[in-house]
Amino acid sequence: MKIDRISLKIIPDSKARETLEAKMQSGALAVLASVPAGESTGKNEAKVIDPKIALEKISWIETQIKGHEFSQLGQFDGLLNTLDGTSNKSNLGANLILSLSLCFTKLLAQKGGLETWQLISRISGSRPSLPLCFFNVIEGGVHTENSLPFQEYWFIPKINSPKKALDQCQTLLSQLKKKINAEYGKVQMGAEGGYTVSSKNAEDGLKILRTAMEESGLDGNLGLDVAASSFSDITSYDLSYFRLLTQKYPLLAIEDPYSEEDWEDFSKITEVLGSKVWIVGDDLTTTNPKLIKLAAERNAVNAVIIKTTQIGTVSETIQAANLAKSYGWKIIVANRGEETMDDFIADLSVGLGADGFKSGCPLQEERLVKYQRLIEIEKICHI
Ligand code: PGA
Ligand code: ZN
Q: Which of 165, 187, 275, 299 is the most exposed place for a label (fewest CB within 10 A)?
């Protein structure tokens, strides 16, 4: 496949901040892709550049890409990495590189008459499947003002049907809104469209969520993204606290219970709670094969978050996911704190056969479109 034209523009994301949208053309086909951004980023993530600087770089990249014949995604991503020439994509920027890698993936799928998830399934060698939805219904931490200390509280319906899961989530959200209103007054939204709860007690989020779930007649699991690397002080919740929470609530997964430097605490919690709870690395592992390998050597987690933006190309994202799966871990494909309308991650999760899919709260449009894409795949493709 030859690329005839690429262009880049700046668009606003869900927080009205500037991000990149790329367009790529090959013959009669043209695709768009836009990149999200993190607010609680891990320190080992690939580096993003100012979108305005990215615009200055695109015509040079176009001259380097035009005329090449690409048959594989790895070949295209490899060329971008060579042009960048750094280990963390700081020269061309992970956001710019990813926008092109996403476009190329979509274009390659279309050229081959495939859905994007089908192409990803072939490249990764995974059996496609529909993931469990991890709905971020209550938010705290740096994604909010004046809310709970933990960043995300998930409602996880116990079904692999995104359609039924979304229906359940909507039922839950209306009950949850009423309860938060009654107990805490005004209901506000966090960065991902979930509700906030004005309490400093981390457990209060789980309490109100479980009650709303029971009152709605729903039987789901719950989960947490503690996002401990983002704590503004040195607060850390010890193992006995997390153990207590897992005894009191139906917790399926806990993400980043400790900060990205606390490898020993990660290993301890995985040893003690790992047989019943997914201990999930996000800032700890940053979709980076080197860190995922290190986490395996230290038995630090039994599950990982997979985010394209953390590593910066689709092929390296697939490599990271495959490595994590080779250790028998669960993988959860996830959105970012600041999102766009691009629904690529839904295809990614199906194509990788991911166990979980975390796309914020469906009350926000940028999150909803990704759940809707999953439902479309469920409907059309009979997986
Ligand atoms: P971020 O948060 O995109 O702001 O880093 C999401 C997460 O921590 O999972
Ligand atoms: Zn996280």
A: 275
